[in-house]
Write a structure and sequence with these properties.
CATH architecture of the largest domain: 3-Layer(aba) Sandwich
Number of strands: 14
Strand content: 15-25%
Helix content: 40-55%
Strand order of the largest sheet: 6-7-5-8-9-11-10
Order of helices and strands: EHEHEHEHHHHEHEEHHEHEEEHEHEEH
Number of domains: 3
Largest sheet: 7 strands, mixed
Structural class: alpha/beta
Shape: elongated
CATH superfamily of the largest domain: P-loop containing nucleotide triphosphate hydrolases
Length: 429
């Protein structure tokens, strides 16, 4: 579709430090992103500016320096650690005579490599097409040579319109298929809700160790590697927790600073698992010097997908990379677990993690013994059976039903509001 230079694996990296944004610490993460994409770094060019240059993003002198580095190193691609406009990409490609890729394009490329399931591939393609649609007009400038009125219009205009229509049609088709996937996921969630099965969702910065922790807890054999975005497709597994019963654990895609909005939108069906969770396990690489910034970056994405209100438990992972750190639980003033220090790689602290999870989930459960008069027994007993919350029941000599129930606090509150009978009057104190 594009008259552009082919991308290769020999790259020049460009990182500009904007003092007002304080992005200098992102350089090492940028190099990890490039490595995760399977690209070989030949040279890293850095610089400082007050604001991006409208034509080249970098200054004209720095742009010439990049072009000379491409020639001397025989590089095949230039990758920027910033979001470039279509015009800036095109101008740089013309100057450097090679393919130019920005941070968004790099992340999209990594996602395209990692996607395994049909849904994951659709989501990545959707994000790529949305990104591509903003660059179409620049991609076809070489065809816009003939100008004029009726009968004299060049093929570029027609081709551009055709490509835009094809893109729109493909995006609509993908959205329809993803909508079906979203409905299937919603059915699964409704079934779990009917069965009163709590859901635990793993979230965290990319490469924080979520999949390693997931495998340690569930023995699921999910692909885990020391690279960014090793996991794209969500995996669900059932767990048994003491005093809670069966629970569902969901492993999700990792987050990153300046995660492209197209990706967040495309992965909405996947991230729905996070929105609907009963509790989030926020996994953090405790050995990363920037772990506080990483926590903040994850919180920003959680807010963007409207999951910031879901209760969370902080899991400080990779204590095996720290000196003197031992597994432990940190509690707040009310004694509720807030942070657990573990090593998923070595399996240390897993018992404490289960303990903290059990306490947090069990604290959301209520348990009552009810004495129900005969006139209410049929409807209420069938309702409790449907909710699978009956622990014990027996009939007394006077015909009353003595029943022990255990359910989520939120479900009990809904039940009390919905029922005509005042359930609280039936509680045996």
């Amino acid at each position: 579709m594009f008259d552009r230079y082919e991308a290769g694996e020999q790259a020049i990296l460009v990182h500009i430090n904007f003092t007002q944004e304080g992005e200098w610490e992102d350089l090492s993460e940028f190099e990890m992103l490039v490595s995760s994409a399977g690209v070989n770094t030949l040279q890293v060019i850095t610089g400082s500016r007050q604001a991006p240059h409208p034509k080249y993003y970098v200054g004209e002198g720095k742009a010439e320096e990049i072009a000379q580095a491409v020639q001397s190193a025989d590089a095949e691609i230039v990758i920027f650690n910033h979001a470039l406009s279509p015009a800036q990409e095109r101008n740089l490609e013309k100057l450097c005579e090679c393919r130019v890729l920005d941070r968004t394009g790099l992340i999209l490329d990594i996602f395209a490599q990692r996607a395994r399931t049909h849904e994951g591939k659709l989501q990545v393609e959707l994000a790529q097409l949305r990104h591509l649609s903003t660059r179409l007009i620049r991609g076809w400038t070489h065809l816009e040579r003939q100008k004029g009125g009726i009968g004299l219009r060049g093929p570029g205009e027609t081709q551009l319109e055709t490509d835009r229509r094809l893109l729109r049609d493909r995006i609509k088709a993908i959205l329809r298929r993803l909508d079906k996937v979203a409905k299937q996921r919603e059915q699964g969630r409704r079934a779990r809700n009917r069965a009163e099965i709590p859901t635990i969702s793993l979230v965290g910065y990319t490469n924080a160790g979520k999949s390693t922790l997931f495998n340690r807890i569930t023995e699921a054999g999910v692909y885990a590697a020391d690279q960014l975005f090793a996991t794209l497709d969500p995996t669900l597994r059932k767990l048994e927790l003491d005093d809670v019963g069966p629970t569902i654990l969901a492993d999700t895609v990792g987050f990153i600073r300046h995660l492209p909005h197209d990706l967040v939108a495309a992965f909405k069906a996947t991230l729905q698992e996070t929105q609907e969770a009963d509790i989030l396990l926020h996994v953090v690489d405790a050995s990363d010097d920037r772990f506080r910034e990483n926590i903040e970056a994850v919180n920003i994405v959680l807010e963007e997908i409207e999951a910031d209100e879901v209760p969370s438990l902080l899991v400080m992972n990779k204590i095996d990379n720290l000196d003197g750190q031992q597994p432990r639980i940190e509690r707040d003033d009310e004694g509720i677990p807030r942070t657990v220090w573990v090593s998923a790689m070595e399996g240390r602290g897993m018992d404490l993690l289960f303990q903290a999870l059990t306490e947090r989930l069990a604290s959301q459960m209520v348990q009552y013994r009810l004495r129900i008069p005969p006139q209410y027994q049929g409807r209420l007993r069938s309702l409790f059976f449907e909710m699978r919350c009956i622990q014990f029941e027996e009939y007394e000599q006077d015909g009353n039903l003595l029943i022990d129930i255990r359910m989520q606090q939120v479900d009990w509150s809904r039940l009390v509001k919905r029922e005509e009978a005042v359930l609280s009057d039936f509680i045996v104190h």
